[in-house]
Write a structure and sequence with these properties.
Helix content of chain B: 25-40%
Strand order of the largest sheet of chain B: 6-7-8-3-9-10
Largest interface: A-B, 29 and 29 residues
Radius of gyration of chain A: 31 Å
Strand content of chain A: 15-25%
Number of helices of chain B: 6
Structural class of chain A: alpha+beta
Largest sheet of chain A: 6 strands, mixed, barrel
Structural class of chain B: alpha/beta
Largest sheet of chain B: 6 strands, mixed
Mean pLDDT of chain A: 90
Oligomer: heterodimer
Radius of gyration of chain B: 17 Å
Distance between the termini of chain B: 19 Å
Number of strands of chain A: 12
Distance between the termini of chain A: 31 Å
Helix content of chain A: 40-55%
Strand order of the largest sheet of chain A: 2-3-8-5-7-6
C-alpha cells in the first residue's frame, strides 16, 4: 500500500489535545527510561571501574587455590614464588588481549602511631602499574574523583627512598595521621597520648608476622590519604609499594595477579585460556573474573539490584504508556468507525486498515520518543551540572550522581517502547477491524 | 441480452434486533447488465440498502447466491472480496464519507493506494481524469470541508470511478442534497453512464428523480414488486 504513512501522519492532526496528551505520556515515560538507563549505565560502568581498577581486582585475577578468601589472613600459604611470578608474567605478556598486569601482596598486620596500634589489611602495589591505573581512560571517564588522593601524593615507590604508605581516609582517622603533618624536630612537642593527640608527624610503624613466622616492623611515612571503594575497606586498609610490604613480610612472593584487559568482553575467554596455560605450566592457581559473584559480591549484587529496579520501573513505565496508547486508540477507532467502513468498502483489507492505524501509532510513538529523548538528555545534563553527591550503601564516602545515557540505552528503550505501543494499538483496532463491513456501516448510520 | 454482471438468485437476509428477527430480503432475484442505469426504488425499510450491500459484497445472504461476473461471492475469502470491491465496484455514500485530512485529489486517489503494481504516473492520470469527469479539476487541492454538499458528492463519484469499476453502487446519493443539487448529481451520473458506459445501481425513495432513469426496480417489504424500463427514459 502506498500513501499509508501520509494518511497516518495527517491523522495526527486530528484530536490534537488527545494526541498531545498521549504523546506527552510517551515522552515522559521514554525520558524516564532514558534517565533510568543513564543511571544504570553509570552504575555499570562506574562500579566496573571501581571494582576492576580501584579495587585492583583486574578483569581477571589469579590466586593460589583458596587464596581469594584466605590469602590476606595467611599470605605465606597462598602466594606465588618468584619463579611462578616470572612464568605468569611471561604468559600475560604474550597475550595481546592483556593491556596491563599487576602483582599484589595482601596481608594483615598492625600499624602504630606511637600511642596505639590499629589492625590493617595492607596491599602492596607496583607503583608503575598504579600510575597507569590511576590515569586509565576508564577510570578517568567513570571514577576520576576516586583516582585522586584525598590528600598528599600517590606512592612513588622510588628505589632507595624511605618506606611509604597510603592510608584509607577512615583508617587514617583511627591513627590520627595525615601526610601534611610537620616532620618531627627537636622542638616538636612529645606525643600526648592521654589527650588523644598523635598527629604531630606523618610517620607510622607497620608490624606484621613475616613469612618465616617472625615478628617484623618498619617505619613508613604517610604520603597520601585515599578513599577506599567500600565502607568496610575504608576503616582497615592501607597501601604500600610492593617492595616495602615484601620487606615487612620478609618475602619476594605475591598473593595475586590482576589482569587488566583491553576489552572487558574478553574476560571469559582470557580466564579460560589462562587457566589452561597455567595448568600446562604446572602452576596451581584459581582464576576469577571481575563479574564473578564469589569474587566481587558487592559489584555483582549492586548491579543485580540496579537491573531489577530499572527493569521493574521500566516495565511499569512502558505499561502506563501502552495503556495511554490503548485508551487513545480506542477512542480514535470509535470516532472513526465511519471512516473505517469507508476504507473497507473501498477495498482495503483488514490488514491494510490495521496497518493504517499501526502507522499512526508508530508516528505518534516516534514523535513522543523524540521529545522524550530531548527531555531525558536535558535532565541528564542538568543533573550532571548540578554536581549532586549521593552516598550509596556500602560505598565509602559519596560519589557524584551522573546520568549517562548511551545510544544503546536510548535505542534499547525505544525497542522496548515500540512493540508495546503497537500491541496496544492492535488490541484497540483488531475488534473493530474484524467486524463485517456492513456492521461498521450500520454502526455509523444507526 | 448480455451476460449479467451481477446476479442475485433467491436471496434472503434477516436481521436480528434484540429478540426480534426482521426479514430484510425474502427471496430476491435480480440481474444487472453492463451499461445499465438502474434505480432501486422503495420506501424506508423496504430492503434497498440490504440489497445494495449484498451486491457490493459487504454483506452475505442467509440463503441464495450472489454472483459477480459469474463468480459466487460466497466462495471468496474476505481479502478476495476486498480486492473484488476495490477493482470491480465503486461506492457512493449518502454522507459522502470523504476523509477530512486528505484533500480532494488524495480522496479520489484513495482506492488506488491498494492497487499493487499501478504505476504512479497512471495513478495520477486516472485521478486527473476522474476529477475532470466530475468537473472538479480546479478543486484538486481543496480540503473536503471547504466544498459544498454537491461538490463533496462529486468527489465521492470521482472516487468511485477512479478504479474503472464494472459497477457503481450509490446508496441514497442525493438524500443529503437540496433538490436542485440532487438533480445535478443525478444528471452527472446519467452522463457518466452514457459517456463512459459505467453501470450504475442506486437507491432512492425520491420519485422526482426517476424521470431520467432507464430501469426502475421497485422493492417493498423485502420483495421486488416491479422491475421494468420506465417510459420516456
Amino acid at each position: 500500500m502506498t500513501g499509508g504513512w501520509r494518511i497516518a501522519v495527517r491523522n495526527l492532526s486530528r484530536n490534537r489535545r488527545r494526541n498531545v496528551a498521549t504523546g506527552l505520556a510517551i515522552a515522559v515515560g521514554y525520558a524516564s527510561l532514558v534517565i533510568l538507563g543513564g543511571y544504570s549505565n553509570y552504575a555499570y560502568e562506574g562500579m566496573g571501574a571501581l571494582t576492576v581498577y580501584l579495587q585492583r581486582f583486574g578483569h581477571v585475577s589469579i590466586h593460589k587455590p583458596g587464596g581469594l578468601a584466605r590469602a590476606a589472613a595467611k599470605p605465606s600459604a597462598y602466594s606465588f614464588t618468584a619463579e611462578e611470578q616470572r612464568a605468569i608474567a611471561g604468559l600475560l605478556a604474550a597475550d595481546p588481549r592483556v593491556e596491563l598486569a599487576g602483582r599484589y601482596l595482601r596481608a594483615g598486620g598492625l600499624a602504630g602511631n606511637g600511642c596505639k596500634s590499629v589492625p590493617f589489611v595492607a596491599t602492596g602495589v607496583e607503583p608503575e602499574v598504579e600510575q597507569r591505573l590511576l590515569v586509565h581512560p576508564r577510570v578517568q571517564a567513570w571514577a576520576p574523583e576516586r583516582a585522586r588522593p584525598v590528600e598528599g601524593a600517590a606512592l612513588s615507590g622510588a628505589a632507595g627512598e624511605e618506606a611509604q604508605a597510603a592510608l584509607a581516609v577512615g583508617y587514617a582517622k583511627k591513627l590520627r595521621k595525615h601526610p601534611s603533618a610537620a616532620e618531627p624536630t627537636s622542638g616538636t612537642a612529645p606525643l600526648d597520648c592521654a589527650a588523644g593527640r598523635a598527629d604531630g608527624d606523618p610517620w607510622i610503624q607497620l608490624a606484621a608476622i613475616d613469612f618465616d613466622g617472625g615478628f617484623n616492623a618498619l617505619d613508613a611515612r604517610v604520603t597520601s590519604l585515599y578513599r577506599a571503594v567500600l565502607y568496610e575497606e575504608d576503616k582497615t586498609s592501607l597501601m604500600t609499594d610492593l617492595p616495602t610490604l615484601q620487606r615487612l613480610l620478609a618475602t619476594d612472593r605475591v598473593t595475586s595477579f590482576a589482569v587488566y584487559l583491553r576489552d572487558p568482553e574478553d574476560a571469559p575467554a582470557v580466564a579460560r585460556d589462562l587457566a589452561g596455560s597455567l595448568e600446562r605450566a604446572g602452576i596451581a592457581a584459581e582464576l576469577h573474573r571481575f563479574d564473578d559473584p564469589a569474587a566481587s559480591p558487592y559489584y555483582t549484587g549492586t548491579l543485580a539490584m540496579t537491573w531489577a529496579i530499572v527493569g521493574f520501573v521500566g516495565i511499569l513505565v512502558v505499561i502506563v504508556a501502552a495503556i495511554s496508547m490503548l485508551n487513545a486508540m480506542t477512542l480514535t477507532i470509535l470516532e472513526r468507525t465511519r471512516e473505517l467502513a469507508t476504507f473497507r468498502s473501498l477495498g482495503f483489507t483488514r490488514r491494510q486498515v490495521t496497518g493504517l492505524f499501526l502507522r499512526e501509532a508508530t508516528a505518534l510513538t516516534a514523535l513522543g520518543i523524540a521529545a522524550g529523548l530531548g527531555l531525558g538528555l536535558l535532565v541528564s545534563a542538568a543533573v550532571g551540572a548540578a554536581h549532586v553527591e549521593i552516598e550509596p550503601s556500602g560505598i565509602a564516602g559519596t560519589i557524584p550522581l551522573r546520568l549517562v545515557p548511551t545510544p544503546a540505552v536510548c535505542v534499547g528503550a525505544a525497542i522496548a517502547y515500540f512493540p508495546c505501543s503497537l500491541a496496544a494499538t492492535w488490541l484497540a483496532v483488531r475488534r473493530s477491524v474484524g467486524r463485517p463491513v456492513v456492521q461498521l456501516l450500520t454502526a455509523v448510520t444507526a | 441480452m448480455d451476460e449479467a454482471l451481477i446476479r442475485l438468485e433467491a436471496v434472503t437476509k434477516t436481521y436480528r434486533l434484540g429478540e426480534t428477527t426482521v426479514p430484510a430480503l425474502r427471496g430476491v432475484s435480480l440481474d444487472l447488465h453492463p451499461g445499465e442505469f438502474t434505480a432501486l426504488v422503495g420506501p424506508s425499510g423496504s430492503g434497498k440498502s440490504t440489497l445494495l450491500n449484498l451486491v457490493g459484497c459487504i454483506d452475505e445472504p442467509d440463503t441464495g447466491r450472489v454472483s459477480v461476473e459469474g463468480v459466487d461471492v460466497s466462495t471468496l475469502s474476505d481479502d478476495a472480496r476486498s480486492r473484488l470491491r476495490n477493482r470491480r465496484i465503486g461506492f457512493i455514500f449518502q454522507s459522502f464519507n470523504l476523509v477530512p485530512v486528505l484533500d480532494v485529489r488524495e480522496n479520489v486517489e484513495l482506492p488506488l493506494l491498494v492497487h499493487e503494481r499501478l504505476p504512479v504516473a497512471e495513478r495520477r492520470e486516472r485521478v486527473a481524469q476522474a476529477l475532470a469527469d466530475v468537473g472538479l479539476a480546479d478543486f484538486a487541492r481543496h480540503p473536503p470541508d471547504k466544498l459544498s454538499g454537491g461538490q463533496r458528492q462529486r468527489v465521492a463519484i470521482a472516487r468511485a470511478l477512479v478504479t474503472r469499476p464494472i459497477l457503481v453502487l450509490a446508496d441514497e446519493p442525493t438524500a443529503n442534497l437540496d433538490s436542485e443539487t440532487a438533480a445535478r448529481i443525478l444528471d452527472l451520473m446519467v452522463e457518466l453512464n452514457e459517456r463512459r458506459k459505467v453501470t450504475f445501481l442506486f437507491s432512492t425513495h425520491d420519485e422526482k428523480l426517476m424521470a431520467r432513469v432507464a430501469r426502475h426496480v421497485h422493492i417493498r417489504d423485502g420483495l421486488i414488486e416491479k422491475d421494468g424500463v420506465a417510459r420516456g427514459a
